[in-house]
Specification:
The complex is a heterodimer of chains A (114) and B (300). With 114 residues, chain A is of the alpha/beta class. Chain A has a single domain (3-113), classed as STAS domain (Transcription Regulator spoIIAA). Chain A contains four helices and five strands. Chain A has helices spanning 22-39, 56-71, 83-91, 105-113; strands spanning 3-8, 11-16, 43-47, 75-79, 100-102. Chain A has a five-stranded mixed β-sheet with strand order 1-2-3-4-5, with helices on both faces. Chain A is globular, with a radius of gyration of 13 Å. The N and C termini of chain A lie far apart (31 Å). In chain B, helix 4 packs across helix 6. Chain B folds into two domains: 11-166, Globin-like (Orthogonal Bundle), CATH 1.10.490; 173-283, Transcription Regulator spoIIAA. Classes of the chains: A alpha/beta (114), B alpha/beta (300). At the A-B interface, helix 3 of A face helix 7 and helix 8 of B.
Chain lengths: 114, 300
């Protein structure tokens, strides 16, 4: 899998290295949910800075992760969405409800620790 | 055998007379250069064309155009004339010379020259006809070339200015750390709205902005397409981690948007730019206080 999930104190940081296939998206979703339960994390940051496309399936999966985490008391922050990706997503009406959004990893950590 | 040769010669002669006529024509125009040029200049002044140029300027352009014109007639190649026309257009467009003037001037030259040909060949109407057969297509081609060059040059200038205006028209300004303002002045169309989105997202990334105030006080009206572009820009900003506050919605625009049924639920809107900036500062936990104690203190 092209995603590494790192534990950083109370938080998890998943950094996605390339565009994901649907299977990989499912793997990421399941891995994130399992890790949050295992480490009892307070927050999850998903860094998609290296991703050049986010389709409806990926968006929905990220929303699912965010909703599930919220039920368990963890915040989900999506960071690093590129301008072109943001434009494409807004054109297709894709939204990341329930997830927090920050410009980059740094802003994401700030958001969680604030 | 002899017959064959004469046939070939005949064919060559058919073209040759045309060429020799053209030579004669060009020689005639060169010979009577001064009176013809003066006549042309006189008629330009009479018709009140090129009024933004002085008499001296008109005369020097007339001289150059005349020579180029005759050269183009002689060689049948319009490239030199085309280049000159382009260069001329570059010089006279900024001075406000209009298309009708340029076309008028070129057509006047055509008329002046044709008139002089009528005079020269009036004794021999069949020769006159043949001379005109040679002259007219060449002259028309030249007129078209000059006109087209002028219009093309004008269009190029217009395009250049349009892109300059576009560049200037969407500034993204940083007011405080993490706070940008984006004042929009003038009518929005789809292309400009798209460019605006681009600049906005670039500004958010470059300045690490958290809040953007878009002020549309200077926008006279908005249609469905532009409204949707704005909504998309706001959504895309959200995906980059920045909130957008729209200010300066006029009553007209607000009514239009409501009438169009644009979904504005994700847009935060504040009455004017001042209110927008104050709201943004509040969200970013800035507090602005007056240092002059005699003035009524106002906290934001």
């Amino acid at each position: 899998m092209t995603v590494s999930i790192l534990k950083q104190g109370n938080y998890l940081i998943a950094s996605v290295q390339s565009a994901l296939t649907d299977t990989e998206v499912i793997e990421l979703r399941d891995a994130l949910l399992a890790q949050v339960a295992k480490h009892r994390s307070r927050g999850v940051i998903v860094d998609v800075a290296a991703v050049d496309i986010i389709d409806s399936f990926a968006a929905r999966s990220l929303t699912t992760v965010a909703r599930t985490n919220r039920l368990r008391g963890a915040k989900t922050v999506i960071v690093g969405i590129q301008p072109e990706v943001a434009v494409a997503m807004s054109q297709f009406g894709l939204r990341l409800d329930s997830a927090y959004i920050a410009l980059d990893l740094e802003a994401g950590i700030q958001l969680l620790t604030a | 055998m002899e017959k064959g040769i004469s046939a070939v010669e005949g064919a060559a002669k058919d073209r040759d007379p045309e060429r020799s006529l053209l030579h004669e024509l060009v020689a005639h125009l060169r010979q009577h250069l001064t009176p013809l040029r003066e006549e042309w200049t006189r008629r330009i002044t009479e018709a009140q064309l090129l009024r933004v140029m002085t008499a001296d300027e008109i005369f020097s352009e007339v001289t150059a155009v005349y020579d180029n014109y005759v050269d183009a007639l002689e060689t049948g190649s319009i490239e030199a004339l085309e280049a000159y026309a382009k260069n001329l257009s570059e010089r006279i467009i900024p001075r406000g010379v209009e298309t009708h003037e340029v076309l008028g001037v070129v057509l006047l030259l055509r008329d002046v020259l044709a008139r002089s040909l009528f005079e020269k060949y009036q004794q021999d109407s069949s020769l006159l006809n043949r001379v005109l057969d040679v002259y007219e297509p060449a002259a028309n081609r030249i007129a078209v070339t000059v006109g087209v060059s002028f219009v093309q040059e004008r269009e190029r200038v217009i395009r250049q200015q349009q892109s300059a205006i576009r560049e200037l028209s969407t500034p993204v300004l940083k007011v405080r750390e993490q706070l940008l303002i984006l004042p929009i002045i003038g009518a929005l169309d789809a292309a400009r709205a798209r460019q605006l989105t681009e600049q906005l997202l670039k500004g958010i990334r470059d300045n690490r902005a958290k809040v953007v105030v878009i002020d549309i006080t200077g926008v006279p009206s908005i249609d469905m397409t532009v409204a949707n572009h704005m909504v998309q820009a706001v959504r895309a900003s959200g995906l980059m981690g920045a909130r957008v506050i729209i200010t300066g919605l006029s009553a007209d625009i607000a009514q239009t948007l409501v009438g169009l049924g644009v979904d504005l639920s994700m847009m935060q809107s504040v009455g004017d730019l001042q209110g927008g900036i104050e709201e943004a500062e509040r969200q970013l936990s800035y507090a602005v206080t007056r240092t002059d104690s005699s003035a009524p203190e106002q906290e934001v």
